[in-house]
Amino acid sequence: MNDREREILLEAFKFHGHKCWASTAGVRVGLAALRALGVARAGSSDTLHCIVEIGDNHGAQCFADGIQYVTGCTLGKYNIEKAGWGKLAITLIDKKKERSVRVSYKGTHQKKIAESAFMRKRAQGISPSEIPEEEAWEMVDIIWKAPENEVLTIGEIKPHPFKDYGEIMGLHPCEECGELTSVAYLRVVGNRHVCIPCSGYSD
Amino acid sequence: MIDATDYYEAGLALHGHKCPAMPMGLRVGAAAMNALGVERARDGQLLALVELGEDHCATCFADGVQMVTGCTFGKGNIKKLHYGKWGVTLVETATGRAVRVTPRAEAMMANKQTEFFKEYREKGVPASRVPAEVVEPLVHKVMNAPEESLLAVGAIFHYEIAHRPHSFSSLVCDLCGEMVVEGYARIVGARKVCIPCQEKLIGARA
Question: Are the Cβ atoms of A182 and B72 closer than 8 angstroms?
Fold first, then answer.
């Protein structure tokens, strides 16, 4: 991994809030996927779409922050979604060329990671940001410095039809609370147009 | 005190283009943090409930919230409520102290009555391809407007958090050989497999 990539890793950690192996894995997976498709980081929501296979409430979801930072597929641009499978893999789709690649993280070094000082402390319930810097780097580098074929499986480029509906642009104040609401989310109660929480409907 | 300005450059690097919604997320997030008197979440110290939905304009707002609060998609401490609104409820997880902050409708409507929206965004031009001189005044306005004209900060209240412990156990799927979190593994005969492999084997998921 080169110096520029190391800088990206540092920026990703800064965004994420702490150093950990899963966000490191996300950065490597994201970089490999961009390279495989020959595309640049997404600066707007119309170029790339990412399906990340993590679920909810499990360890190593931090993977997705590495992916967000590197690919530019972010929660805010809504060009990232979870598959909910509890796995550390992504499918990155080039929406313009309608083709995709799946890259997954390989657990070759998981035993080494589990036995690191950092992970032993995590298992005792210590938060990542409270563990010394050098112990964090020691663990991060197990993944960062590993040869690519030991930590990643890069799939073939495949055709991937993608129907992009684009954005719904209108906004309107809710007639009950007065707060601005996207028109697609306004609900009808009698002759009034109101937001979901004011409507009493569940969605 | 958290100053949204300190997070603008980093927010822009994360988000990838200039628009008024990401900065609005920074301002709303910073105001919520200051109301609670909390620092950026390095781990799971804060939880953000954002009222955005999908596929509507100004969802970029969420990237500003992510950057300033440290509540991120990866850490799982930011959740969408899908109301198509821009309110944010920020919760200090250790105490359950919470506050809801929302941009004022007038401030967001004013952003909509601009060349940026009328001439570019509503005509389908992505924000990253709007000329800088068109978008920069909007960004400047959002970043520098007095807080009281831009947003409304609610009263501090108690939010009950359902604490679900994180699972750290994982195993290797017997079919594809990829790692899967234990709770997501499925049993097919004598094999422990991941959800997509379960679908392949039995044509259904559970």
Answer: no
Structural domains in chain A (count)? 2
The whole-number average pLDDT for the span A133-148 is 96
Round to whole Å and give the CA distance between A52 and B89. 26
Domains and CATH numbers, chain B: 4-158 (3.30.1330.130), 170-202 (3.30.60)
**Contacting residues of B for A126, CB less than 8 Å apart:** none
pLDDT for the residue numbered B118 = 87
> Which residues in chain B have Cβ-Cβ distances shorter than 8 Å to A196?
82-84
Predicted structure pTM score: 0.82
The encoded tokens of residue A59 equal: 């360890």
B62: which DSSP letter? H
Average of per-residue pLDDT across B128-156? 94
Interface test with B, best of A8, A15, A115, A153 (most B CBs within 10 A): A15
CATH of the domain at A196: 3.30.60
Judged by CB atoms closer than 8 Å, whether chains meet at A17 and B72 is answered as yes
Q: Does the CA dihedral B142-B146-B152-B157 come out positive or negative?
A: positive
- Same domain for A87 and A179, yes or no, is no
Minimal C-alpha gap between A126 and chain B (Å):
11
pLDDT at B152 over 60: yes
User: Is residue A109 classed exposed, middle or buried when 0-12, 13-18 and 19+ CB atoms within 10 A define those classes?
Assistant: middle
Are residues A23 and A59 located together in one domain of the fold? yes
CB contact under 8 A, B74 and A66: yes
Would the ipTM clear 0.90, i.e. be above it?
no
A154 lies in the same domain as A190: no
